[in-house]
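Exercise (ungraded).
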Amino acid sequence: MTRIRFQQSLEDLKENLLVMAGLAEQAIQRAIEAYRVRDLSICDLVNRSEIAINRMERDIDQAALDLLAMEQPMAIDLRFILSVIKINADLERVGDSAKSISDRVRSMELLAVADLPVDIPRMANLAADMVRKSLQSFIEGDAELARGVLTMDDAVDAMNRAAYKSLTKVMEEQSHLAAQALNALMICRSLERVADHATNIAEDVIFWVQGTDVRHHKSIAKAEAKSQVV
Amino acid sequence: MGVGIEVSNLNAWYGTNHTLQDINLNIPANHATALIGPSGCGKSTFVRCLNRMHETNPIARVTGSVRIGDLDIYADAKPVEIRRRVGMVFQRPNPFPTMSIYDNVAAGLKLNGFSNRRELDEIVEKSLKNSALWDEVKDDLKKKSGASLSGGQQQRLCIARALAVDPEVLLMDEPASALDPVSTSKIEDLIFQLKSQYTIVIVTHNMQQAARVAEKTGFFLNGRMVEFDSTHKIFTNPSDKRTEDYITGRFG
């Protein structure tokens, strides 16, 4: 083994990203818990996590940039660093989404608890599971596990669409619950974004491990099929 | 214009040392092809087989075939003719130290009996322009010796000397490894320009250089060609684990 220092730096980069991943995962779980029990002290913890996540995002980007400039990585090492940079951005946005959810919980403080036709805990569990699995695939360099995450995104999208439909109906028909329904809708939107970030992370893991770019395959294939018809 | 190179079942020996084993390769015309690999892997021996330079060593032996365009260089050509068609530039610039800049470039032509003064002037000027050296030396062509130039200029002079005999293929064995970054960059720019007119094969230890200048890259290891593919594929997602281990610095 040569380039020992470089290999050590790659290990350090991975370790730091995993610390940040832990913070982001914890932030989203806390935000969901804050919603479930309507506890503002948990919202404070989410806010604090977000500051730490933002700081780590900058540090990780800087470390990745240094490695690109100093070590001129190739092949799997180059793909790894590119993936780290992108996963880093996705984790930061997971942190942002957690904060958005906790902001919604705060704004719900003075509102009466309403029984809304949406299963936010179920959607939250699915999104959190996607984050967990995408990060597990990163830890283990497991492209198959990452591919499994991609198939989960459709379910979250479907839940978000259903939530939109049922919650707009509540806003139309039960105007006294409009504020609660709007908050719930925004939380669903944040969870849908969290699932998208988990999908991005899984795609980056596949690119790192296999060198295959699986992004936007469905939409590109659909557009191509459409253009062939025209 | 450059021509393609077709290498079939090429084997080479130095004494009992089997330095190249069953190399099969098609090098495309008018492209730059980089050869990479650890020291002693056979890449320099390989390029020396492409203009029969290898056989100048008395203990060396070659089997197999190398076709440069329509010419089978081991079957039906004389070494002098081959080396006219296949120019070579070495790691260390080697201008003739006592000759002027002009005579360095004209040396190959004169050796081939070329004596028309006006045409010689034109070829020297064209070759120096093609090697991006003309503007720097045009006022001192016959006053200064080749050895008076800087290392980078000397290397470009050697390229001009190789171009003067109008080759189809240009072999470069680590042409920039003894040069500073600015001179290296000039040589790389030059390779980029020249490849539209010549087929270029470059041996390099500098992976980034291979990635910058070549469309195709071959990885040699222990006398064998492990992988030959587009440079993009080799440096982003090679097929063979040994290639990946080498280019990522895990061995070599």
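Further reading is listed at the end of the chapter. For now, observe: The radius of gyration of chain B is 18 Å. Chain B has a mean pLDDT of 93.
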